[in-house]
Amino acid sequence: MLLAGCGDAPPTPGPPPAPVRPMAPEPPAQSAAPTTSTPAPAPATVRSVRSAAGTFTARWSTDPDPIPLSDPFAMNVELFEDEACTKPASDGTLSVDAAMPHHGHGMNVRPKVEALGAGRFRVTGLLFHMPGRWELMFDRTRNGLLERAQTTVQLQATPTTPSASATPSTQSGMPAATPSP
């Protein structure tokens, strides 16, 4: 199965790198006087996955980033008709879910999806309650047909904090390169 997203180069043998692109860069805030406050957080990592039949691409980022362990998080999702992510999806609905196939269960919560227009969605109420391999599913329904884009995230618990970091993987389950800072 071939997965590519938003203009990525053709796949090469071995684990593919995780696509990282800012969704909509915002101009830096203007301030009246210099401050010594803490630096602004880095932009969220943006990932993409092509649907199984190849009719849409889901581009997504989480808030906060990385995905926390046992804490609610939200997701910004954009659907595109093309692989290069230049033609926003103009119709259909989106549902998002996640499951741990090796454990035989999904999330303990039901996320809410809000359509924002022009193929953009805000998903709230997501929660990964345990570390491990999670399958993240983006289901688009259009003209009575459902199609899925699916990817894997690996949630690692850290010994120093109850939070975790998520590393994307390809749909085939092969680990992807960890995004560099």
How would you describe the oligomerization state of the chains in this entry?
Answer: single chain
Which class best fits the helix and strand makeup? mainly beta
Q: What is the CATH top level name of the domain at 47-169?
A: Mainly Beta
Widest sheet, order of strands: 1-2-3-7-6
| General form | globular
| Biggest sheet details | 5 strands, antiparallel
Written overview of the protein:
The chain is mostly beta strands and 181 residues long. It has a domain at 47-169: Immunoglobulin-like (Sandwich). It contains no helices and 10 strands. The chain has strands at residues 47-50, 57-63, 73-80, 93-100, 105-106, 112-117, 120-126, 132-142, 145-157, 164-169. The strands form 2 sheets. It has a 5-stranded antiparallel β-sheet with strand order 1-2-3-7-6, with no helix packed on it. Strands 5-4-8-9-10 form a 5-stranded antiparallel β-sheet, with no helix packed on it. Strand 6 and strand 7 (120-126) form a beta hairpin. The chain is globular, with a radius of gyration of 17 Å. The relative contact order is 0.21.
Set out the fold topology.
Layout: E1 47-50, E2 57-63, E3 73-80, E4 93-100, E5 105-106, E6 112-117, E7 120-126, E8 132-142, E9 145-157, E10 164-169
Antiparallel strand pairs: 1-2, 2-3, 3-7, 4-5, 4-8, 6-7, 8-9, 9-10
List keywords for this structure.
Immunoglobulin-like; 5-stranded antiparallel beta sheet; globular
